[in-house]
């Protein structure tokens, strides 16, 4: 499979590139600065650009079978998640690419969540504290919902370094088994698995290491 990975130089993005290549995929790794990604492989192409630039995104998606993205706000870039997702969705529709799997955050809510009173309070506090960054993630989800794509938004809690555990819970807040953290290696494995699975299409599961 030919996969375009946005945010390929992030901690999770690097793992996605490594694991995708190990699985035999051909990877187009989209980064802002090629010096931040040291991977080298005959089946790897590194593309530099800005995900907020529609032309850069369009070029990166041409010829892809599926798209993965770890892009999120950094510093003052409080609209980058929504802007990049809008550009990615537009390019995917243009080129007939259907499957999009991206990283979202556990703080935003979706209808199936059953948060406790404390959980709801924490959610409200996060929305106040994070302000535009939180709004950016909510807008990102709205874009996905109206995109017409086969998408999965992987909502994550605190991310940790370390090896994959293979013990992953996917569901919604309030369900038994939800944890408070997730290794990036397990996240990468889960995202890659969604390229061939339909369980979570059009949904935004919270994904954690099982309790």
Word description of this protein:
- The chain has 211 residues and is an alpha/beta fold.
- The chain contains six helices and ten strands; from the N terminus they run E-H-E-E-H-E-H-E-H-H-E-E-E-E-H-E.
- The protein has helices spanning 11-22, 54-61, 80-95, 117-130, 132-145, 184-193; strands at 2-6, 26-31, 44-48, 66-69, 99-105, 150-156, 158-160, 168-171, 181-183, 206-209.
- The strands form three sheets. The chain has a six-stranded parallel β-sheet, sandwiched between helices.
- Helix 1 links the parallel strand 1 and strand 2 (26-31).
- Helix 1 (11-22) crosses helix 6 (184-193), helix 2 packs across helix 3 and helix 3 runs parallel beside helix 5 (132-145).
- The protein is globular and about 45 Å long.
Number of helices: 6
The assigned structural class equals alpha/beta
- Global morphology: globular
Number of strands: 10
The description of the largest β-sheet is: 6 strands, parallel
| Mean pLDDT score | 92
| Overall helicity | 25-40%
The string of secondary-structure elements, in order, is EHEEHEHEHHEEEEHE
CA radius of gyration? 16 Å
Beta percentage is: 15-25%
Lateral arrangement of strands in the main beta sheet: 3-2-1-4-5-6
First and last CA, distance: 33 Å
Low-confidence stretches: none
Give a short overview.
The protein is of the alpha/beta class and 211 residues long. It has six helices and ten strands; from the N terminus they run βαββαβαβααββββαβ.
Describe how the helices and strands are arranged.
Elements: E1 2-6, H1 11-22, E2 26-31, E3 44-48, H2 54-61, E4 66-69, H3 80-95, E5 99-105, H4 117-130, H5 132-145, E6 150-156, E7 158-160, E8 168-171, E9 181-183, H6 184-193, E10 206-209
Parallel strand pairs: 1-2, 1-4, 2-3, 4-5, 5-6, 7-9
Antiparallel strand pairs: 8-10
Helix pairs in contact: 1-6, 2-3, 3-5, 4-5
């Amino acid at each position: 499979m030919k996969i375009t990975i946005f945010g390929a130089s992030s901690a999770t993005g690097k793992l996605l590139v490594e694991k995708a290549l190990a699985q035999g995929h051909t990877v187009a790794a989209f980064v802002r600065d090629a010096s931040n990604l040291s991977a080298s492989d005959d089946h790897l192409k590194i593309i530099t650009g800005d995900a907020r630039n529609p032309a850069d995104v369009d070029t990166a998606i041409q010829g892809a079978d599926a798209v993965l993205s770890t892009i999120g706000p950094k510093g003052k870039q409080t609209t980058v998640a929504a802007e990049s997702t809008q550009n990615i969705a537009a390019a995917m529709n243009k080129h007939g690419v259907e499957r999009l799997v991206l990283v979202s955050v556990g703080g935003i809510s979706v209808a199936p969540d059953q948060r406790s009173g404390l959980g709801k309070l924490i959610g409200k506090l996060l929305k106040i504290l994070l302000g535009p960054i939180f709004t950016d993630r909510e807008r990102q989800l709205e874009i996905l919902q109206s995109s017409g794509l086969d998408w999965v938004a992987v909502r994550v809690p605190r991310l940790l370094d370390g090896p994959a555990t293979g013990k992953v819970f996917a569901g919604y807040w309030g369900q038994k088994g939800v944890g408070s953290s997730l290794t990036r290696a397990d996240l990468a494995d889960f995202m890659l698995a969604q390229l061939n699975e339909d369980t979570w299409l059009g949904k935004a599961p919270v994904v954690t290491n099982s309790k």
